[in-house]
Amino acid sequence: MKELPRFVEKFIYFLECHIKSPIFGCKMCGQCVLHQTMFVCPMRCPKGLRDGPCGGASAQGKCERYPDRDCIWVLIYRRAKRQGKLEQLKSFKPVLDHRLVGTSSWANLLTGKIDVHGKSLLDAAPQPKVEPTKSKPQPQP
Ligand code: SF4
């Protein structure tokens, strides 16, 4: 896991926030899954559900918390259906690691804190070094 200079990290955060917030309503969760949710940010869900709707959405597809709004997962489903990508919704999205909330997912990807699927690697065990095997000298007959 690499570290970026603080000012570089702050600059990347600034860029990501100012680009993604107005376009996608990004909440800077630090573990972006936009590319897996048809570019509809699941963090716009008031419950922050990243892996599908809760049981409270109405039969008309409205949010339980804000009944005047469509459920985010209904929007994701509709877009996936339009694009013929419903299969893509069947894969599990990585759970949110709250230690990364409020950070830049671009910086986290660069430093290896998350993988390309948005999965936190903070607790990933360091890979053991593999030493090249030395051949033993064979005993002479
Ligand atoms: S998934 Fe996270 S990083 Fe991606 S747009 Fe939504 S809040 Fe922002």
Write the layout of secondary structure elements.
Blueprint: H1 6-24, H2 72-82, H3 105-111
Residues 20, 24, 26-29, 32-34, 41, 43, 105 line the site of iron/sulfur cluster (SF4).
Summarize the structure in words.
26% of the residues lie in helices and 0% in strands. The chain has 3 helices and no strands. The protein is mostly helical and 141 residues long. The chain has helices at residues 6-24, 72-82, 105-111. The protein has 2 domains: 1-33 and 95-122, no CATH class; 46-93, no CATH class. The model has no long low-confidence stretch (mean pLDDT 91). The longest helix has 19 residues, at 6-24. It binds iron/sulfur cluster. Iron/sulfur cluster (SF4) binds at residues 20, 24, 26-29, 32-34, 41, 43, 105.
The ligands found in this model are: iron/sulfur cluster
Number of structurally distinct domains: 2
Strand-and-helix sequence, N→C?
HHH
| Main sheet attributes: strand count, strand direction, barrel closure | none
Strand residues, percent: under 5%
Task: State the helicity in percent bands.
Answer: 25-40%
Instruction: Specify the number of helices.
Output: 3
How would the global form be characterised? elongated
Index terms:
141 residues; mainly alpha; 2 domains; 3 helices; 0% strand; elongated; binds iron/sulfur cluster
Summary?
The chain has helices at about 5-25, 70-80, 105-110.
